[in-house]
Design goal:
alpha+beta; SH3 type barrels; 2 domains; 2 helices; 5 strands; 25% strand; translocation; protein transport; membrane; Preprotein translocase subunit YajC; transport
Length: 106
């Protein structure tokens, strides 16, 4: 029994397949609306936040540390933590959660 014989022998079989395809399309649309779309929106907001990063800005990292940006490279920033001027750590830009502008741009 092939697919062509099943579709040709029953008129309602074609409508069942169409309804199943519509149902799957609706499920995929709902999944996209509630899962993928908000994640992409969050990613765009984070990208714009990181692109506004400048030397001298105070930042908050994902691990909860506050620091001051000393140098900015392509994917890495050098951050100075605490009052000790020798505590400079390179970290990825994706680990920045919040930026506090210190240049009077508020």
């Amino acid at each position: 029994m092939s697919l062509v014989s099943v579709l040709g022998s029953q008129a309602t079989g074609g409508t069942n397949i169409v309804s199943i395809v519509v149902l799957y399309a609706a499920i995929i649309g709902i999944f996209w609306f509630f899962a993928i779309r908000p994640q992409k929106k969050k990613q765009k907001e984070h990208d714009s936040l990181v692109s506004s990063l400048e030397v001298g800005d105070s930042i908050l990292t994902t691990s909860g540390f506050f620091g001051v940006v000393i140098d900015i490279m392509d994917e890495v920033v050098i951050v100075e933590f605490g009052n000790n001027k020798n505590c400079r750590i390179p970290m990825k830009k994706e680990n920045i959660v919040e930026i506090d502008k210190q240049n009077g741009e508020e």
